[in-house]
């Protein structure tokens, strides 16, 4: 649990650093207004200097907490709107956006797998042995169908990514499979396309 929280915090900080860096790069590219002197490097370095240990540690901790709270809120909104600047690193990039839209536009067997397994567990407690055996066989058949679907999704995603982007990112097929196995309502980032609305 602690490891997961630490990982989420690191991802949040990495996302914020990337967003800040992108904003700084964009700001640097803007031309200086006419009539104003170009800022000297010495002045810029001096403006960026901060003490290693802040004078008021309690205030610094409070500021850090507030900063992290704002960052988490931005990430939460990004998960709903698909804003690339504040998405976790694993969800960023045009290839991953394409995969999400393609998976969300289709209807698959895998997304119902969890619901069927839970239903089987509850119903199997209240049915006779013979019925339980039949349900168990049906469940194994469903698992086989889902495995075949996962193989087909991975193959299709690889082909579509290579056609559209040239070279696929590492882990993109696994990313597609994991999203295809999630219940649509519970997917994060949230689906931004309707069923049947495949990316052009």
Automatic annotation (TrEMBL):
User: Region annotation Disordered: residue ranges?
Assistant: 1-74
For this UniProt entry, which segments traverse the membrane? Answer: 109-127, 133-154
Ranges of biased composition (kind: Basic and acidic residues): 8-28, 40-74
Sorted keywords for this record are:
Membrane, Transmembrane, Transmembrane helix
Look up the signal peptide feature and give its range: none
Q: Which Pfam families match?
A: DUF3043 (PF11241)
Does this UniProt record's set of keywords contain Transmembrane? yes
Record-linked InterPro entries = DUF3043
The protein, known as: DUF3043 domain-containing protein
